[in-house]
Amino acid sequence: MYSPQLLDHFQNPRNAGDLPDADATVEIENPVCGDVIRLSVKFDARRITAIRFKAKGCVPAMACASALTEMVLGNTAEEARRLTREDLVRAVGGLPQASTHAAQLALDALSSALAQIKHK
Fold first, then answer.
1. pLDDT at site 119
2. Using CA atoms, how far apart are residues 13 and 105, in angstroms rounded to an integer?
3. What's the CATH number where 90 sits?
4. pLDDT digits (tens, 9 = 90+) for 64-91
5. Sheet holding 36-43, edge to edge
6. Minimal CA–CA distance to 100: which of 117, 112, 88?
7. How many Cβ atoms from other residues are within 10 Å of residue 110's Cβ?
8. pTM value?
9. Could you give the number of structural domains in the chain?
10. Torsion of CA 45, 14, 18, 99, to 10 degrees
11. What is the spatial distance between Cα 39 and Cα 13, in angstroms, rounded to a whole number?
């Protein structure tokens, strides 16, 4: 049912936890399924220097949040904004059709965090 990449991100999450000195912290919930992703991001002048997540929900939500942190670490905000749902789905080796919302939830959290940075 789930790809080896997705299960690896779920069983061995990357960048999990809190980031106390974050420049932006957001918490996004999917009101339909109840999945929640909390994303914290630290920037230097141009790049994402640290990113952490906490997730509560389904296996794909946790895996997508983990993969997202790996994909955008070291990116500029502009580079991070170019990440698509399809990119994230590919990174976890695919998602069942009923679970594509997990990738969108992670991207929505990233978008909200980047918007916070822009306003500072």
1. 57
2. 17
3. 3.90.1010.10
4. 999 999 999 999 999 999 999 999 999 9
5. 24-29, 36-43, 48-56
6. 88
7. 29
8. 0.93
9. 1
10. 100
11. 14
Full residue range of the structural domain in which residue 18 is found: 4-118
**Dist CA 10 CA 41 (whole Å):** 20
Looking at residue 16, what DSSP letter applies? B
What the block records as the tokens of 120 is 């500072």
Separation in Å, CA 59 to CA 26, 63, 68: 20, 6, 14
Instruction: Give the mean pLDDT of the chain.
Output: 94
Residue pointed to by tokens 């919302």: 101
Q: Is the pLDDT of residue 2 over 70?
A: yes
Going by C-alpha positions, the residue among 52, 10, 6, 55 that lies closest to residue 29 is 55
**Model confidence at 33: pLDDT above 90:** no
What is the Cα–Cα distance from 117 to 25, expressed in whole angstroms? 10
CA-nearest of 101, 78, 103, 77 to 88 is 103
For residue 30 the two structure tokens come to: 């999917």
User: Taking a C-beta distance cutoff of 8 angstroms, is the pair 116, 26 a contact?
Assistant: yes
